[in-house]
Amino acid sequence: MNQTRLILCGGFLGAGKTTLIWDVAQRLIAQGKRVGLITNDQAPELVDSRLLKQATPHVAEVAGSCFCCNFNGFVEAIRSLRKDVEADVILAEPVGSCADLTATIVRPLKKYYNTEVIVSPLTVLSDPTRLKSILYGGDGGLHEDAAYIYRKQLEESEVILITKTDLLSEEELEKLIRDTQACFHHTKVMAASTMNGTGIREWFKEVANRQGEGKKILDINYDKYAHGEAVLGWLNGTIALTGQNAYWDSLLKDIMTGICRMLKKEKLRVGHIKVIAENGEQYAVGNITGDVSTLQLRGSAGRGDNLKLIINARVETTPEHLDELIRDVLLEAIDGQYTDEVLAWRYLQPGRPNPTYRMAD
Ligand SMILES: Nc1nc2c(ncn2[C@@H]2O[C@H](COP(=O)(O)OP(=O)(O)O)[C@@H](O)[C@H]2O)c(=O)[nH]1
Ligand SMILES: [Mg+2]
Fold first, then answer.
1. Which of 13, 48, 94, 118 could form a disulfide with 18 if both were Cys (CB 3.0 to 4.6 A apart)?
2. Model-level pTM?
């Protein structure tokens, strides 16, 4: 079969990677293209995989390790999508706290797998609020070592895609593009919004017709990188809830506002917290990608007797504390109104990145 076009959509937690991939997948499928998607996380039970499966069933998950540390798992995922779907295009989302992708992913793919994939220029998505802070000397609302990862991601990108442009005025956006370009001279800076659809077609045209050069090898301190990842506690949980003709959107709202109250009280910095409430085909999603003002609720899980709730939280605290805090919020929201069964529950601190390959010469 022909080579598959592989588009890596990197960028920090909450930047908008999954939403963009979902949007682009829908557009490509409507044009009759065969599309495969790959998600990635340090643990199974991913909200992103559930969400993307709403766009296409062809979603492969590399869980338990990032693409770079489980390069063979990543290649297996690519191969399975080529075999099962004969994918023309694969869109892949690496873990949001992952960096050094050129040396650990792009180069090994170009060297060993170029008969199977054409790798597009590495795109790094960037949330405008965090980006502004980082550009002008701030910490992006992150621990300094997590902010270090953020900067390194931007530094190695071949395309920076500023996301969520619907949140900015025209003048603000123009200035942000100008200032980003001034900081990263050798990178193409683009901007898009999945909310209003602007910029997506232009970005896709840019990356789908070029090959990544794989030349920007980072000078990166792995101790700082490892610490930047380790400051975040990681929790993935799945719970089945039962009620009587319950209004699930109101429960999701209670959970998300409970999480916001807890974050304020504990003064915790957030990488990303996302919760999906699934009632058969109907679903609603809650997201927090920074301070509590970033809370977004989308979709509707409607009414029903059964709900599946998946929670993915990456918050700057120990995983044990995160576990306690999330449990408390859930208990308060559920408060004897529903019966619950925990189907999966994992909390962890990401280990030191140890890439399968690092081709830096
Ligand atoms: N306003 C706005 N919000 C967006 C846009 N794209 C994504 N988001 C929101 O940003 C949050 C994080 O998005 P997600 O795709 O999960 O980010 P990821 O962690 O990078 O995969 C969600 O609440 C999305 O609804 C956008 O273009 N505009
Ligand atoms: Mg995602």
1. 48
2. 0.97
